[in-house]
Design brief:
Layout: H1 2-17, E1 33-36, E2 41-44, E3 49-51, E4 54-56, E5 62-66, E6 69-70, E7 83-86, E8 95-98, E9 107-113, E10 122-123, E11 127-132, E12 138-141, E13 147-151, E14 156-162, E15 170-175, E16 178-179, E17 184-189, E18 196-204, E19 214-220, E20 228-237, E21 244-246, E22 254-256, E23 260-268, E24 275-280, E25 283-286, E26 290-292, E27 297-305, E28 314-320, E29 328-333, E30 335-337, E31 343-346, E32 350-352, E33 356-363, E34 371-376, E35 379-381, E36 385-390, E37 396-405, E38 414-420, E39 429-434, E40 436-438, E41 443-447, E42 454-456, E43 460-468, E44 477-480, E45 483-484, E46 497-499, E47 503-505, E48 508-516, E49 525-530, E50 533-538, E51 540-542, E52 548-552, E53 562-572, E54 577-582, E55 585-587, E56 590-592, E57 602-611, E58 620-627, E59 632-639, E60 644-648, E61 655-659, E62 664-666, E63 670-673, E64 678-683, E65 686-687, E66 696-698, E67 704-706, E68 715-723, E69 726-745, E70 749-752, E71 757-766, E72 773-778, E73 790-795, E74 798-803, E75 812-818, E76 826-840, E77 847-850, E78 859-868, E79 872-877, ...
Parallel strand pairs: 2-11, 13-20, 22-30, 32-40, 42-51, 61-69, 70-76, 77-84, 77-93
Antiparallel strand pairs: 1-4, 3-8, 5-6, 5-9, 7-8, 9-10, 9-11, 12-14, 14-18, 15-16, 15-19, 17-18, 19-20, 21-23, 23-27, 24-25, 24-28, 26-27, 28-29, 31-33, 33-37, 34-35, 34-38, 36-37, 38-39, 41-43, 43-48, 44-45, 44-49, 46-48, 47-48, 49-50, 52-53, 53-57, 54-55, 54-58, 56-57, 58-59, 60-63, 62-67, ...
Length: about 1200
């Protein structure tokens, strides 16, 4: 027992020392050895393998070895994650399980039992674990999945290579499902050890049946359940089958001309399908075909119209494709049946009666031949001869000759040649002629007016010729005195003869002749003939003279010549009487010997003698032939052509008026024969070119046309006319009128106040009219522009505007307007300068300027005055002339028109030295004026002025006011109000602080209120003693509309401040109208002012004020004034004074000294939409200070007391 216990203890110690090893429990009774040995095992890659090992080895460690490498006794086998020991170790089960086997697991394995006290170590026999690796891919050449194009019957080589595998796979080829024999295969080493690849090659000869089938490479292996495959699709090219022609009928090749033949050619099989074409006699006739891939058929349809010339033609259909070794063909020969295309009858079917008619009938080629027979009407005639000849296209020509006797009763019957054949039983071919048997007419006569009846020339006469019977129809012909009558129609002549055509009515034939009778028809014989028959009639026609002719004894006529004229009437029936007249004046003539008359009429003649003058030129001498019986007159005239030199007519114009820059026509009224050869114009001794010039042209009638006429063209023009008979001259005056031009206008015209002066305007114009001068005064709208107190005078080309006792209000621009009826009127601008003594602007009895007297601030004093001519400024301080050489004083002087300014800047203001009364003195040669400016310390603001209500509603009131002197500091406003009858006051601060208008809300309807306005700055308010400015208002009831207040209580004013109206004194309104120069702002709101009722005098707060000085007058390019007038091109001479050259102030010239609001140079109103209170420059110093506590004001702002 003690020994057993010791052994157990030793074994336990051994187990502790070998922690992690697999141990077999100690069973004293179990024999040592293997009860289960591992065996060789084969598995497929990725499968699970288990090698069995069962042992009887109590207390022994068990482990596996792989190719001699011990895996360790740990059941988890850490170095091989896929390996582990399986089984019940207590029972001695130590099976090696390998998950997801791969090629690295292919090795020899043995199970080992460690040595123990019970026995030595045990080792199992080595077993082999064989891992099968299946091939993953097959690489086929051609590429797997593609389609290969092969030609049937040709041999091709294909190869197939397997991927890595173990063992090497077997490769077979299948063509259309059948295994290919004779494959050569090679086994090669794979990409890794123990892996192999197989490369197999096969020779393939595809057939047409293989088209579209698969060529498959199949790889098999013990590692595969099913073989892997790679395949290509075979596109096997092979020729098509022979073509087949489908003939539509039983008799192949038998057709008839004109038939529409449709033949279908079919070729089956072939890859690609067959290309078909039709040929006729070896020439292609159709290359169109279609394919049906589902049936593998190619079809081509030939449609043709069979013609006779197609007889014997061979139609063939050819089939081939790209792999055909030759063209396959199927043909058929056409046998064409065709009738004769035409039948012709030779010979004439026209013959005189009782004579033989011979004709022949011949056909065009036909197949088969045709037979001929003759018909006359419905009677068959027997031919005299029949002949058959070979024709075209394998046909035959038939001919038949016929002779028969022409009889009158057969006239008009149809002679027919008929062709017939058994092959054309449904068709008849004929050719017909109409038999014409000739025989003469039986009777002929004329119907018309009775012979001997007198017809008037111009009457319409109808003659009709009639005949009975005859074939052909008798041709009725009319003759006049043995000449054939035709129907001539010369152009532009009336139609005198109308010859009708032969007309037939039954067996009677007629032809009409309609005449418009004339002299030639008198005693004429008209005859109608038909073959050997004829009939005649004679007409008697009365007519006036056919021609009246005037003969002269001279061809060239001149004034004073004697002219003998003879009038001859050629022929008339009955005779006529002759008479003479000249332009309606009857002339006596002498009868002359008549001549022989044509048309079997009578002739007459008469003469007259004339003595000629130039007035006879162009007159007509008329001879009249009058027939009393016919009551008709025929006249002829002779126009006198008298040659004479030029003669000016009484209507010749001697004075022509034209307007400058226009056109002028100097007309010519002249008579001459021949017409004048030349018209020569001379002006001031110079001859004008007949060919014309830049501004003149001589018209065809001799008139002179001038263009762009100028006043230099005014004067006498001499006209010289000439022809072959002589010359003539005339003088024509051209009066050129032109618009007025101002030649002299003194600008400016100067006058002292109270004196008289003439504004003189001298012009050049044509015509000069008494009332052509007028005057206008120019100025702003609403100003007095009346000229009632001025005298207007004119004499000749000079006009005057006389001003008596000149006033300042009359100064300004005047316009001289001259209108003589020729546009445009002339306009000249002249300025009247009224010279006057200086007048300094006095906005208040005393002007105050505030500045801190701390010797660091500066102040600017502004003095403005009006006066002409220029003003000179001087300054005094407390009555003592100011020394401007002192560097602390700087003066800038500006002149603009009649307005002059002086700005005195005081630097480093000292309360002891500079708080004083400064006087500005303005002086010019006509006098002087002055104003006082007090420089003071900063202080509390003055009360605002001008408080008024601008709108009232039941609940609010709109207020406006004018700020007072701000004491040199920013000021703000507060509204105090109370409802009458209600105790207590209410207060409202005005925002923004610098506003000058405010709407007070929160009021009650129908209530009377009293409203005060207080001003305050950092030093205090404007004073409660005066209670500021105040008004009383009453709000309307709810049933009353909102309104503007009808009346207001006057604003309370501080004591000792004079009131000044906005309009100012009369003298303030006086200014020269031509110099409407204004300041860029009427007042400077940055500087506070004393309270006034309607106007703000100048109070300048000069603390920290550093104005930007404007450029000097010479540096500013001023716009020229009165632009609107300059656009009218008015005469405006140069200016005498620079100060009157500008009507509007130049941009930026004065504005910065008075206000910070930029305004247009000619805009004299505040731009309300962009107003900014310039007093905001003080906000950065005193805007945040408590106005209640004066001790809080910085020392530098308090100033010194005076």
């Amino acid at each position: 027992m003690a020994l057993s216990t010791r052994i157990k203890a030793e074994l336990l110690l051994l187990g502790l020392l070998t922690t992690g090893l697999t141990q077999v429990p100690i069973l004293a009774s179990a024999p040592r050895g293997f009860w289960a040995l591992p065996e060789n095992l084969t598995v497929v890659e990725g499968a699970v393998a288990e090698l069995r090992c069962g042992v009887h080895a109590p207390g022994s460690a068990v482990q596996w070895a792989k190719d001699g490498l011990l895996l360790g006794p740990d059941p988890r086998i850490p170095s091989f994650p896929r390996y582990r020991l399986e089984g019940d170790h207590a029972k001695g089960e130590f099976h090696l399980r390998i998950e997801a086997c791969d090629l690295s697991d292919d090795a020899e394995y043995e199970c080992q039992v460690g040595r123990s006290e019970t026995g030595p170590e045990l080792v199992s026999p080595r077993v082999i674990l064989s891992i099968l690796v299946p091939p993953k891919v097959l690489q086929l050449t051609p590429e797997a999945g593609s389609t290969v194009t092969w030609v049937a019957g040709q041999e091709y080589t294909v190869s197939c290579v397997s991927g890595d595998a173990k063992p090497a796979p077997d490769i077979t080829f299948l063509l259309s499902g059948q295994t290919i024999s004779g494959i050569s295969a090679n086994v090669n080493e794979g990409s890794q050890q123990k892996l192999f690849t197989t490369e197999a090659t096969a020779r393939v000869t595809p057939q047409s049946s293989d088209n579209g089938q698969l060529l498959v490479c199949e790889g098999s292996s013990p590692a595969l359940d099913t073989p892997i495959k790679a395949s290509v699709t075979m596109n096997v090219l092979f020729p098509p089958g022979p073509p087949i022609i489908e003939w539509p009928g039983l008799d192949e090749g038998q057709v008839r001309a004109g038939q529409s033949l449709e033949l279908s050619c079919t070729a089956r099989g072939g890859n690609p399908l067959a290309t078909l074409q039709w040929l006729k006699n070896g020439q292609p006739v159709s290359t169109a075909w279609g394919t049906e891939h589902a049936q593998a058929v190619a079809r081509s349809l030939l449609v043709m119209i069979v013609r006779p010339e197609d007889h014997g033609a061979r139609l063939s259909c050819e089939a081939y494709n790209s792999v055909s070794t030759g063209i396959q063909e199927r043909g058929v020969t056409l046998q064409v049946t065709f009738p004769p295309s035409a039948i012709t009858i030779l010979g004439s079917a026209s013959q005189s009666e009782n004579k033989n008619v011979t004709v022949s009938c011949i056909t065009k080629s036909s197949r088969p031949r045709v037979l001929l027979r003759w018909w006359l009407g419905w009677r068959q005639l027997q031919p005299s001869e029949e002949t058959v000849m070979d024709g075209l296209h394998g046909g035959h020509i038939s001919m038949s000759n016929l002779t028969f006797l022409a009889r009158r009763e057969d006239n008009g019957l149809t002679l027919t040649c008929e062709a017939f054949s058994e092959a054309f039983t449904k068709e008849t071919f004929k050719k017909s002629l109409t038999l014409n048997v000739k025989y003469p007419a039986q009777k002929l006569w004329i119907e018309g007016p009775p012979e001997g009846q007198r017809l008037r020339a111009g009457n319409r006469v109808r003659l009709v010729c009639l005949a009975i019977g005859g074939n052909p129809d008798p041709s009725l012909t009319w003759y006049k005195d043995s000449r054939t009558v035709t129907e001539p129609r010369p152009p532009q002549e009336p139609r005198r003869v109308q010859l009708g055509s032969v007309e037939k009515s039954g067996s009677i034939f007629s032809r009409e002749l309609v005449l418009i009778t004339g002299p030639s028809d008198n005693q004429a014989k008209f005859t109608c003939k038909a073959g050997q028959l004829s009939a005649s009639t004679q007409l008697v026609v009365q007519f006036p003279p056919t021609n009246v002719t005037i003969l002269a004894n001279a061809s060239t006529l001149r004034p004073g010549d004697a002219l003998n004229l003879t009038c001859v009437s050629v022929s008339s029936n009955p005779p006529v009487n002759l008479s003479w007249d000249k332009e309606g004046e009857r002339l006596e003539g002498v009868a002359a010997q008549p001549r022989r008359a044509p048309f079997k009429g009578s002739a007459a003649a008469r003469s007259v003698l004339l003595r000629l003058s130039s007035r006879d030129h162009g007159h007509r001498v008329t001879c009249s032939a009058h027939s009393t019986e016919l009551r008709e007159t025929v006249s002829a005239f002779y126009r006198l052509n008298v040659l004479y030199p030029p003669e000016f007519l009484g209507e010749q114009v001697l004075v022509v008026t034209a307007v400058e820059q226009g056109e002028a026509l100097l007309p010519v009224s002249v008579s001459a024969n021949p017409a004048p050869e030349a018209f020569n114009w001379t002006f001031r001794g110079y001859r004008l070119s007949p060919a014309g010039g830049p501004r003149h042209r001589i018209l065809s009638g001799g008139a002179l046309q001038l263009s762009n006429v100028t006043r230099a063209d005014d004067g006498l023009y001499q006209l010289h006319c000439q022809n072959s008979e002589g010359t003539a001259e005339a003088l024509v005056r051209l009066d050129v009128q032109y618009a007025p031009t101002i030649r002299a206008l003194q600008d400016p015209t100067e006058v002292n106040v109270g004196d008289s002066v003439d504004i003189v305007c001298t012009v050049d114009a044509n015509p000069i009219l008494p009332e052509m001068f007028s005057w206008e005064r120019l100025g702003e709208e609403g100003e007095d522009q009346s000229l009632d107190d001025m005298e207007k005078m004119s004499k000749g080309s000079t006009g005057r505007l006389r001003i008596h006792h000149a006033k300042l209000t009359q100064a300004g621009a005047y316009q001289c307007i001259v209108d003589n009826g020729v546009a445009p009127p002339a306009r000249g601008l002249v300025r009247l300068v009224v010279r006057f003594a200086p007048h300094v602007e006095h906005p208040a009895p005393l002007t105050k300027v505030a500045a801190a007297g701390d010797s660091t601030s500066s102040a600017t004093l502004h003095c403005r005055a009006r006066g002409v001519p220029n003003i000179v400024f001087t300054w005094t301080k407390n009555g003592v002339p100011l020394d401007l050489q002192d560097p602390r004083y700087t003066e800038h002087t500006y002149h603009q028109g009649g307005v002059h300014s002086s700005l005195l800047t005081i630097a480093n203001v000292s309360a002891a030295q500079d708080y004083a009364l400064f006087t500005c003195i303005a002086t010019n040669p006509l006098g002087s004026d002055h104003t006082n400016i007090q420089l003071v310390s900063i202080s509390r603001p003055d009360p605002p002025s001008g408080l008024k209500a601008v709108s009232v509603t039941p609940y609010s009131v709109g207020l406006e006011w004018k700020p007072g002197f701000d004491g040199g500091l920013p000021q703000r406003f507060q509204i105090r109000y109370e409802a009458l009858g209600t105790p207590g006051f209410l207060y409202m601060d005005v925002l923004p602080p610098q506003a000058t208008s405010f709407t007070l809300t929160g009021l009650q309807p129908s209530t009377r209120y009293r409203v005060w306005l207080l001003a305050s700055n950092a030093l205090g308010d404007s004073g409660l003693v005066d209670k500021g400015s105040q008004i009383s208002i009453t709000t309307p009831g709810l049933d009353q509309p909102s309104r503007e207040p009808d009346s207001q209580l006057p604003t309370e004013q501080p004591a000792g401040i004079s009131e000044k109206t906005e309009t100012g004194s009369e003298e303030d309104r006086v200014r020269n109208e031509y110099e409407e120069s204004q300041w860029t702002g009427d007042r400077d709101t940055r500087s506070s002012t004393v309270s006034t009722t309607d106007v703000e005098p100048y109070y300048h707060s000069m603390r920290d004020f550093s104005p930007q000085l404007p450029p000097t007058m010479e540096e500013v390019s001023y716009p020229r004034g009165l632009r609107a007038l300059e656009e009218e091109n008015m005469a405006f001479p140069g200016h005498l004074y620079d100060e009157v050259e500008r009507v509007c102030a130049p941009s930026q010239a004065w504005g910065p000294l008075y206000d910070e609001v930029q305004m247009d140079s000619c805009d004299f109103r505040w731009p309300g939409d962009r107003y900014e209170d310039a007093r905001g420059i003080y906000d950065q110093v005193a805007g945040d200070l408590d106005p209640v506590d004066p001790d809080a004001i910085p020392f530098e702002l308090r100033g010194h007391l005076v």
